[in-house]
Amino acid sequence: MTTQKSRNLPFRVLSIGGSDSGGSAGIQADLKTYEAHGVFGTTALTVVTAQNTIGVQQAFPLPIDLIEAQIESVLSDIRPHTIKTGLLGRAEVVGLVAEKIKSYGPVPLVVDPVLVNGKGDLIVSPETLDAYREQLFPLATVITPNLDEAARLVGKSVRALQRQDALHMLALDLRGFGPQVVVVKGGHIPGDQIGDVVYDGADFLKIQVTRLPIENPHGVGCTFASAVAANLAQGAIPRMAVMAAHAYLQSALKAALKWKVGEGRTPVNHHAGRV
Question: What's the pLDDT tens digit per position in 187-236?
Fold first, then answer.
């Protein structure tokens, strides 16, 4: 029997990733997204950055033992329903996260493999790519790479994949690394329409929207992945969690058209996308 006390317990998510002092992306975007979904967010920081809408000025990777202590603190007490990863940065951090998830037990895992910067340049080592493919993806419920990240993960040229039909091929290849559901985001492909491809090993789903007049918005990937995690924590099946997250992101982006924050990239308006 469900008691009143148990009904009042909030759904909980742990985000493991980097801090964005500008508040647009990273852990800050995750927490805003969880709040918008009525989910209790917890964190384990991997990297502290000094950044704003214009760019990243400094970054400081945290010691591995401090990252481990943060994860242990949350898992042992708050016991999240879902785990979401963002910027992990180093192969040893990817391996640590995989080890902690396996010891914690079966739990929905959303992996946003942050592998490139805003210009599409790779920011991690080949060993880190291997760690994602071999250690973390086999544990994942949903992975959410963009075109640049997906291409590097499967060892293909980004330039040769600047077309919508390439997303299906990338999703098929990435599914071979073990995640239950692959979402390949097509926002970096030029055109008036943006198409994301979702593949669960049986069927492809294409989610297509009209591109909004926001040039290179900031925090999109973090927001989308954390919205997926929030929906999974509340019991949604993966495909429905992805679709709901996509709808939330579109609302938050449309609301961002009405504001100006900083002198660079436009941040997502997480509050206006409240569900």
Answer: 878 788 888 999 999 999 999 998 888 878 899 999 999 999 999 999 99
Dihedral sign computed on CA atoms, order 98, 24, 58, 189: positive
165: left (phi > 0), else alpha (psi -120 to 50), else beta? alpha
Q: Distance between CA atoms of 127 and 131, rounded to whole angstroms?
A: 6
> Is 90 exceeded by the pLDDT of residue 47?
yes
Which CATH architecture describes the domain 12-257? 3-Layer(aba) Sandwich (3.40)
Place of tokens 């400081």: 60
Are 47 and 89 contacting, i.e. CB atoms less than 8 angstroms apart? yes
Task: Find tokens 């967010």 and name the residue.
Answer: 41
CA dihedral defined by 84, 74, 123, 241, rounded to 10 degrees? 10
Give the residue among 4, 41, 12 at the shortest CA–CA distance from 26.
41
Burial class (CB in 10 A: 0-12, 13-18, 19+), 162: middle
**Which positions ≥6 away from 268 have C-beta within 8 Å?**
24, 29, 217, 218, 219, 220, 223, 249, 252, 253, 256
At 5 the pLDDT is: 41
Answering whether pTM is above 0.85, one says yes
For CA atoms 187, 112, 70, 123, give the dihedral sign.
negative
Q: What is the largest CA-CA distance in the chain?
A: 56
Domain extents for the chain? 12-257
pLDDT confidence tier of residue 120, bands split at 50, 70 and 90: confident
Radius of gyration, alpha carbons of the chain? 17
